[in-house]
Amino acid sequence: MRRAFLHWPRTSAELSADAVRVLAALSVIAGAIWWTPTDAGILAFALPATLLPRFLGVRPAFDITYGVTILVAAWSNVLDLYTSIAWWDLAVHFVATGVVAAMLCVLLSRWGVVPWQPETRAMRRVPLLVVPVLALAISALWEMVEWFGHTFISDDIFVAYADTIGDMAVGGLGGVVAGIVIAFVPVGARATVSIGDR
After folding, report:
1. Which of the chain's ends, N or C, has fewer CB atoms near its CB within 10 Å?
2. In this structure, is the dihedral angle defined by the CA atoms of residues 105, 132, 86 and 146, taken in order, positive or negative?
3. Phi, psi for residue 189 in degrees, rounded to 5
4. How many angstroms separate the CA atoms of 113 and 31, rounded?
5. Could you tell me which of 9, 7, 11, 45 has the C-alpha nearest to residue 25?
């Protein structure tokens, strides 16, 4: 993983993926200057998440998709898009949960937890099962975080039974779609990255 992280970008796609990470860092600065400390904290929370694909050395298209999705999810909170656009919350839950679950599936494969090689088309059935399960787990964890925030931090955080179940269902569906995609589209490393590189 260390070797993948230190890999020098060689293509325009790899440069674009790194540009998304630079944009994530600039977003934290912008949040601190023009928005509130809470907003800056949300954007800062997204920054390390955008570094994960660099450590895993995934293909640039997947790297860019993941990074942009993370930034859109974070900025949607800062810009109040979740409350101002009726369908936006479900759309972001669908896309973000699926993409994050797919990236976690790659991470687990690197650690040898799941028997799958994302660089190849071998063992396609693994992500078909693992990614939806991860998506549901991520959705449940996120809803617990929202409940905790509503209960112990601020009742401005919206929590309702229908919203919780809807978010989890859509997140799980996003995981199903993401699992199908990465089962048939190689998303793994530019070059094989093994656990020994960590």
Report:
1. C
2. negative
3. -65, 155
4. 37
5. 45
Contact 118, 182 (CB under 8 A): yes
- What pTM, to 2 d.p., does this model score? 0.88
Token pair 């997947």 is at which residue? Answer: 62
**Which residues sit opposite 58 in a β-bridge?**
189
Instruction: Compute and round to an integer the Cα radius of gyration of the chain.
Output: 17
Q: What is the 3-state secondary structure (H, E, C) of the chain?
A: CHHHHCCCCCCHHHHHHHHHHHHHHHHHHHHHHHCCHHHHHHHHHHHHHHHHHHHHCECHHHHHHHHHHHHHHHHHHHCCHHHHCCCHHHHHHHHHHHHHHHHHHHHHHHCCCCCCCCCCCCCCHHHHHHHHHHHHHHHHHHHHHHHHHHHHCCCCCCCCHHHHHHHHHHHHHHHHHHHHHHHHCCCCECCCCCHHHC
- pLDDT per residue, tens digit, the chain (198 aa), is 666 655 766 789 889 999 999 999 999 999 999 998 888 888 998 999 999 999 898 999 999 999 999 999 999 989 999 889 989 999 999 999 999 999 999 999 999 999 888 877 678 889 999 999 999 999 999 889 888 877 877 666 667 787 889 999 999 999 999 999 999 988 876 644 444 444
